[in-house]
Amino acid sequence: MTGGQDKRKERLAQALRDNLRRRKAQARESRDAETTPPAERKD
Questions:
Q1: What angle do CA 22, 26, 27 make, to 5 degrees?
Q2: What is the rounded distance in angstroms from the CA atom of residue 32 to the CA atom of residue 6?
Q3: Could you give the CA distance from residue 20 to residue 1 in angstroms, rounded to a whole number?
Q4: Cα dihedral sign for 11, 13, 19, 22?
Q5: pLDDT in tens, 1-27
Q6: Rounded distance, CA 6 to CA 14, Å?
Q7: Alpha-carbon dihedral angle through residues 4, 8, 13, 15, given to the nearest 10 degrees
Q8: CA–CA gap between residue 39 and residue 42 (Å, rounded)
Q9: How far is residue 39's CA from residue 43's CA, in Å, rounded to a whole number?
């Protein structure tokens, strides 16, 4: 039964790593969107 628990821990660890990568990428995208200058407006 410990083999099943080991696999579960491994899946959980991988899911946490994937989630962290995704959150970092989203944070980078939102930061980049904030720092890009707005398009020139024609008033």
A1: 115
A2: 39
A3: 29
A4: negative
A5: 578 999 999 999 999 999 999 999 999
A6: 12
A7: 140
A8: 10
A9: 12
DSSP 1-35: -HHHHHHHHHHHHHHHHHHHHHHHHHHHHHHHHHH
Chain centroid to Cα 17, Å, comes to 9
Is the torsion defined by CA of 19, 22, 26, 28 positive or negative?
positive
pTM as predicted = 0.62
Tokens of 15: 């899911």
Distance CA 32, CA 43 (A): 26
| Amino acid in the structure at residue 7 | K
